[in-house]
Amino acid sequence: MERIKCVAVFAIFFVVFIFGSKAIDNIIADELINRDASILSEKLIMYIRDSAEDLRALPALDDQFECTSETRALLRKTIFQSTFIRWTAVMDNLNVLCSSEDIVRDYDSLAKHKIGENLNMAVMDKDDSDLHELFLSHNSGQLKYVASIVPMNPRYFVHVYCEDCLEYTITIDGLNDNLAAVPVLEFGFDEFEGAHVVTEKITHKNEYYIATFTLSGNEEYLAQYQSLNWWVSGFISFWLALGVAVAYWYWRNAYGSTRSHIRNAIKHNEFIPFFQPVINGNTNELVGVEVLMRWRQANGDLIPPNQFIPFAESAGLIVDMTYSMLDVMAEDIHKMGHQVKPLFFSINIVPAHLHDDKLYVYIKALIASGKLGQHRISLEITERQPITDLVKARQMLDYFYAIDVDLKLDDAGMGYGGFSYVQKLGISTLKIDKAFIDTIGVKDNFNEKTLDAIISFAKKSGLSVIAEGVETEQQLTYLKTQGVDLIQGYFFSKPLDADDFFEHYSSLVAS
Ligand code: C2E
Ligand code: CA
Q1: 507 within ligand 1 shell (Cβ under 6 A)
Q2: Which partner for 229 in 28, 47, 424, 435 could form a disulfide, CB atoms 3.0-4.6 Å apart?
Q3: Residue 14, C-beta contacts closer than 8 angstroms, at least 6 positions apart
Q4: Separation of CA 263 and ligand 1 centre (Å)
Q5: Which residue CA neighbors atom 30 of ligand 1 most closely?
Q6: How confident is the model over 301-314, as pLDDT tens digits?
């Protein structure tokens, strides 16, 4: 067992470490790539903004423009003073009227995309390079100043240690012109290879356009970021894996030890019955008993059910505990039960008890053994837990009904089944929860009306009613006026151990 636990802890550590580092690696790489995409888009916007300022600073052009040596000097001076402009010209529609350098280009595609007041942007492919040429033009009357911008290679700004692994595109969707989204720039690596395994998009919007900056990389590009961070993700996932493994270790120890503790207690008959009387409130006569489990530990400590039953139910141990307690109960009744007249002994069951015929076989054998004497067994099932297969449960219950074991609905009005359980399961008795009894005498209490409704429903349906948790005379009186005769609660008695129960009630109800 210990060995299995150690192997499980090690396996959890290993799996969390491996998958954790991979996941953290991806998260960090993704973050870094996103940051790079933002850097690139901000740089480009800065290029354009600064260059546009430089163009706007030039003197206005008039229709009688002439290309003089002063104009050329002014255009050259602009290049000298500007950080990003490397060529300037004055143009009319498609013709260069004057330029800083005489370089021949095909200007057909210029001035297509409006990106600001009197400001346009265009891109031209370059035959001799995988970089594109970016132009800005600033309209001044009928003419315009045009500038070629220094190419922005992503490598200048972000880490790229691989060839043809990155693509960086900018698409401009003009809001005020009729152009659909147009890719204005495809920077970088025309020979992009492989699939896009990572893509980050950043959008900028102003009153003229929406620009979408897309950075895409292939496996090689992603790997280069991942390898930058392997020690960070390794470090984080090491501690994460350690934390998960330690938490699992503690959980196994706590859970496993309670479990084995309970198994041990079953073996040593530590789950014993306490008996709480159900009294006829009109005659003060004892009519039956609810059997309530207690855990009497080896040192004599008595543990109440709310401290172990929820765990036992979730750990699937409650069924075996019930058998263990019933063994003790059968012995108690066998030893002392002859002192009292016939009673029902109600035991609490859970839906799992109806999943097979084990309980039925057990109780049938118990009845046949004669240990119960003149007494009867009754089952209580709570409405608080749902019964998933009502048809199967009913089939099993019919076997019980055939041997005179009836079914009471515990916590009636508090749970899932509502009153559909009554019909579908063949309930004989409703046990009204203490929560409703507590409302007796409380003015304008909604639950008191519910109490009355439950009682009236029970009467109309021919069901018996047991009021649980009755503590005061006032509650007893009210219940009696409502026709509820069967009372269980501290007003008459707390749950008692076998000795006390049989001693107290033998004289009271001796036959
Ligand atoms: P329950 O079935 O609703 O049992 C009634 C609970 O109300 C018992 O608590 C009982 O002692 C308490 N009670 C009865 N009259 C009064 C009263 O006048 N005032 C107050 N304050 N309490 C009253 P107990 O024995 O602590 O049991 C708690 C719960 O544990 C039970 O609620 C039942 O759900 C569960 N339980 C007990 N024994 C078993 C068992 O053998 N099997 C299963 N599956 N559950 C059990
Ligand atoms: Ca009960």
Answers
A1: no
A2: 28
A3: 241
A4: 22
A5: 305
A6: 999 999 999 999 98
